Amino acid sequence: MAVRLLDSYTEMTEILLPNDTNNLGRALGGAVLNWMDICGAVAAMRFAGDQVVTASMDHVDFISPIELGEVVVVEGYVFDTGRTSVDVKVDVHAEDPKSDRPNRDTTTSFFTFVALDEEGRPTPVPDLVCETDVERELRESAVDDRREQLRMVADRLDD
Prior knowledge:
By secondary structure, this protein is an alpha+beta fold. The protein has a single domain (2-158), classed as Roll (Thiol Ester Dehydrase, Chain A). 29% of the residues lie in helices and 34% in strands. The protein is built from 2 helices and 7 strands. Strands 2-4-5-6-3 form a 5-stranded antiparallel β-sheet. The chain is globular. The N and C termini lie far apart (45 Å).
């Protein structure tokens, strides 16, 4: 069985409220990571057709703060698979609903989820297919972005 990349696409929208902010009125990193994990898990479940658990999350850099009252858009999709695992790219963008400024990137990371059967044991996942140019471009972009992120982390460790 095979599943298309776009069948896993998931988008969540949040508004940054005071309970999820620090004393500067900006998003708590933990709140953002929680939204990313949920979005990634939904994408993985849509793809696998089974329950999933988070196995790992790659390095995260918070590149732009999210301010109180801004709309947060979290997007995720499966871009690679193993036998029982799926890799999901998750991007976070912020937008000021009162402004004409475009959305800005705030963070990206890559999650690996493992599919589980009814007894809680790892179970095989479908093959990933990319039937359209859009799907192929999304997959290639995610693979390249993950490779670049891992290279940058390795370079930091070498310093």
